[in-house]
Automatic annotation (TrEMBL):
Keyword vocabulary terms for this entry: Methyltransferase, Transferase
Domain of life assignment: Bacteria
The Methyltransferase domain, residue ranges: 60-149
SUPFAM superfamilies: S-adenosyl-L-methionine-dependent methyltransferases
PANTHER family: TRANS-ACONITATE 2-METHYLTRANSFERASE, TRANS-ACONITATE 2-METHYLTRANSFERASE-RELATED
A single BP term in Gene Ontology: methylation
GO MF annotation: an example: methyltransferase activity
The protein's name in its UniProt record: Methyltransferase
UniProt cross-references to Gene3D superfamilies, sorted A to Z: Vaccinia Virus protein VP39
Organism whose genome encodes this protein: Actinoplanes auranticolor
Amino acid sequence: MFSPQGPSLRELCVQALSSVERGYDLLAPKFDHTPFRTPDSLLEATVQALESEGPFGRGLDVCCGTGAGLMTLQRLCRDGITGVDFSAGMLGQARAAYPEATFVRADVRALPFTGEFDLAATFGALGHFLPAERPALFEGVFRALRPGGVFAVPMGVLPPPTSVAHWTLTGFDLVMRVRNAVLRPPFVMYYRTTSLPAIEHDLTAAGFAVESIPLTSMGKYRDGDPRCWLTLARKR
């Protein structure tokens, strides 16, 4: 599906019936040939928005996957970059793409860092965490940053209810909830649980000073609302 190099429908079904970790281990070799990879346009928009905040020292990609976000950190951080993920398969792909980076296999709900980084970022991974799990994730990022450090979270906005995309994502969430109600282990991936206000609220509760800026280069919906925002959470 998606391209000749992408996963087949059967492979996607096997992934969806696995746990999150096992599913991404299976998908890793073909992940970059799917729409699930963060688009280069969003990565570039994030770099442009963060350039005025830097330069930064050390950078951390939270849930780095195959390493697309490391390209962003590499351009912004002068003292090295680290990727952390719990999928061995995804980390293997990232190591091949960025041999100069440091990689750590860990559950990001219990990040093993304290005061080591000046910039942290996560790209497209928050849907893999239930709302009740986000506080532990954000508190771990807060702990990993040095005072004054920044946690950057680029986020797409749910399309308006008048769009086909809105109901496609809503239907996806419904299917995943039904799947997780009847099958174990669960595969957590939801779109409607990661609204911008919810993320801002949880980051503030973790101790960050939070602001969100529109990524205007990513375009707007017909009602004029930006399609994407960059949330900047600063360690006080």
